[in-house]
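Continuing the series of single-chain predictions for the mutant panel. This is the parent chain; the variants come on the following pages.
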Amino acid sequence: MPNISLQMDAGLLRRYDRSGPRYTSYPTAPQFEPAYTELDFRRFAQQSARVAHVQPLSVYVHIPFCASPCFYCGCNRVISRSAERSQHYLARLLREIDLIAPMFAGRRIAQLHFGGGTPNFLTPDQIGAIVGGLRRHFTFLSDPEISIELDPRYSRPEDFEPLAWLGVNRVSLGVQDFDHQVQVAVNRLQTREQTLATLQACRAAGIHSINIDLMYGLPRQTLTTFKQTLDQVIEANPTRLAVYGYAHMPAMFKAQRHIRDEDLPDPETRIRLLGEAIATFEAAGYQYIGMDHFAKPTDELAVAQASGDLHRNFMGYTTRAGSDLLGIGVSAISHIGNSFSQNLRDLTAWEDAIDAGRSAIWRGLAMDADDIIRADVIGQIMCQASVDIPAVERRHGIDFWSYFSASRTRLEELQSDGLLWMCASRLMITREGRYLLRIVAACFDRYLQAQSATEDTAARFSKVV
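Parent structure:
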């Protein structure tokens, strides 16, 4: 898909700035139910194993620990500075791998991602123990993607050669904003020099695929200071960029109660911050991938999007379409075959399950035929900003516009505002609609439409802008 210049119509963005899912899955996590058990997980693992020779495995490992709380964070994390605690967690991760791996015998790993929390809370030796635990049960492809999220405040230059030796070839650095006043407001003091030192150490170790995470809408953020951060990040020349909108949901995330409402940018400023980020990234030659993500045109994400192989899951945008996702660790989510499952979110409960030799599955969902069809359509919207209607009809044996007659009614409003166009053979998101992909996808979300009639979606989901 060629690079585009997003047209930032502030009035239109304000009108469509509703709450809605990020669609890292469909159905989304709020639809998961405790009735889904380990027996269901085993059944889908067995079904998926029948096509193991054509379907490699992606593995996500959740490391929950952080040395200090970032007030904006909505992730499942545990605040601790205890090295002993991380060692106990590592031992249980290895036990969980031993428990689950036999269900996936013969599968090859194409992708391994360490997320958190702060994955570099663990030492390279501990990360290596996890990689070794997986290698005892699985064969890795010859060119696996092994990635890790890093907090530059806790990175040491000597850590990166061991990580590269383990096969780590992609890193993501959390930055959010370089402005000191913003950092104070969110309790994350991180100098530009710390970030650049981490980035340079990665490159020196041979890890050249580097993503930087930013955030707009943070307390005390201004257009002037954010522009300075953007310019400094562009100067660092990462291969990928992400700019997330801060979702202020203090009723759901306790740490966010430290952020004062009066310190947050007003809606107009928030939209201008987003517009400044997009303009800066595109002027620097980055290609808009979707949602919050940008990449250089030669990056694998951009190449995968152009070839139609881009995929979206709980790790975000990935190049490994067709892979099952196996989640390891507290709160981790798996997508095996036509099912989703999530591990226990409470660390003690997860530990107790692993110590007892049980699966730590807490809840999940077995997709029905309607879920599968809608997931196909929503995936195309989120990854390609278009839907090939005849292809959907062939795959699922439906007449598209008859099946989605209720969705069409909702789409007509978006079409009248110039966000998309549709005909018998294609639904295409326009340049003006590219940053409202979540709004378009929501038109096909059966669960969201049912919820809208009975509850406030703002209580569950962040704003789309």
